[in-house]
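Hi R.,

As promised on Friday, here is the backbone we talked about, encoded as structure tokens. Could you run it through your design pipeline when you get a chance and send me back a sequence?
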């Protein structure tokens, strides 16, 4: 960066020197164009050019001008029409020479001044424009990387002032992509390597159930179930955390909501599962990423099943610019610190809180995919929790 700073400093100094030199040329040219090479005193003494003799009292001079005339000096006066007259005392007479015409206003030198300013503005624009062009390119690449992490090549010249910044950005993208790939490989390894020993443990547990006390066998079975649930939650978390970006689709809102609710129809005998769909504002359609939104809906309904007493309400509503998917229950609702539940590995404080604190975090990430927001609040109708996912319509 020091080299770029030194280069920019030298460039600015050279530009300032060019500006000073250019103004000197203009000043010299203007002197040559506008200057009057005449000796007014000698011309008045000799009576050359146009002159006339006047009575000294015919012109009311200021006292300081009268003093200069008395000393034999030549004074100049400019009239209202911008014409110049010269005066001096010769004996007892006041001699006047003039008028001298004003400077011409259409001299070619007048055209040079705006041309110089325009060239200076163009030079500054060229100097700054390259920097802003490179910054704009780097900004677009950073936005693309945020949408889909991949190795980036800035294609910025080594002579650019922001070349070190571009190199640092490229290095950062490579490190992040490598870390994401390592995380994905770890997730795949866990999914394959953990399931095999768990299956063997279940098989051995079934064989030895008759030889173990019932409470020991039940505890071992619960531990195996917990490890499997943790493994599945982590795999879902990793898939959402490093999502590569799927394309959204327009689907029928009623059909999508009905399919989502049917996945939990087996709980119909224990709880009343209500659905409400009002997407008339979007012609009965909804734009979403199918896999992501289905995963979000299932997580929210699974959370509601854990706390609900008798009723769960699933609603999908469209307005002029957004859709809102809301899951409500008639449970005990949220206590303090409900905003923290959207963070990873955060669980509620109630006795029924289970899982590993990834459910709402996953839903929040899916909301970000849809450029939406997740809200955690209390239900005004059912009295329990109300979790809503609100996302806006895509710009077509």
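Update: got your reply. Pasting your designed sequence below so it's all in one thread:
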């Amino acid at each position: 960066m020091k080299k770029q700073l030194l280069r920019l400093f030298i460039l600015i100094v050279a530009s300032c020197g060019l500006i000073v030199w250019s103004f000197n040329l203009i000043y010299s040219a203007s002197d040559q164009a506008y200057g009057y090479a005449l000796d007014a005193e000698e011309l008045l003494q000799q009576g050359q050019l146009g002159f006339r003799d006047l009575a000294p009292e015919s012109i009311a001079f200021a006292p300081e001008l009268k003093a200069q005339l008395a000393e034999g000096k030549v004074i100049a006066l400019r009239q209202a029409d911008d014409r110049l007259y010269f005066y001096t005392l010769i004996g007892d007479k006041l001699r006047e020479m003039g008028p001298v015409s004003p400077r011409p206003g259409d001299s070619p030198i007048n055209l040079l001044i705006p041309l110089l300013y325009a060239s200076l503005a163009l030079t500054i624009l060229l100097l700054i424009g390259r920097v802003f062009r490179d910054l704009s390119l780097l900004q677009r690449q950073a936005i693309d990387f945020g949408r889909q992490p991949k190795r980036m090549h800035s294609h910025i010249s080594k002579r650019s002032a922001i070349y070190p910044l571009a190199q640092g950005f490229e290095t950062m993208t490579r490190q992040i992509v490598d870390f994401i790939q390592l995380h994905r490989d770890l997730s795949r390894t866990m999914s394959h390597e953990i399931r095999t020993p768990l299956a063997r443990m279940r098989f051995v547990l079934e064989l030895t159930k008759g030889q173990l006390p019932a409470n020991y066998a039940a505890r071992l079975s619960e531990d195996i179930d917990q490890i499997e649930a943790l493994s599945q939650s982590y795999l879902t978390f990793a898939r959402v955390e490093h999502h590569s970006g799927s394309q959204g689709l327009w689907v029928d809102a009623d059909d999508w909501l009905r399919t989502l609710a049917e996945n939990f129809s087996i709980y119909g005998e224990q709880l009343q599962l209500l659905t409400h769909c009002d997407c008339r504002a979007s012609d009965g359609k909804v734009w979403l990423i199918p896999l992501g939104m289905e995963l979000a809906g299932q997580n929210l309904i699974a959370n509601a099943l854990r706390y609900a007493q008798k009723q769960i309400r699933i609603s999908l509503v469209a307005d002029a610019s957004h859709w809102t998917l809301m899951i409500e229950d008639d449970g005990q609702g949220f206590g303090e610190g409900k905003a923290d539940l959207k963070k990873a590995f955060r669980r509620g404080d109630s006795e029924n809180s289970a899982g590993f604190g990834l459910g709402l975090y996953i839903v929040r990430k899916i909301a970000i995919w849809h450029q939406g927001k997740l809200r955690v609040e209390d239900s005004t109708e059912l009295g329990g929790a109300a979790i809503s996912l609100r996302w806006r319509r895509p710009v077509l």
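One thing I noticed while checking it: The longest strand covers residues 93-100.

Thanks again,
M.
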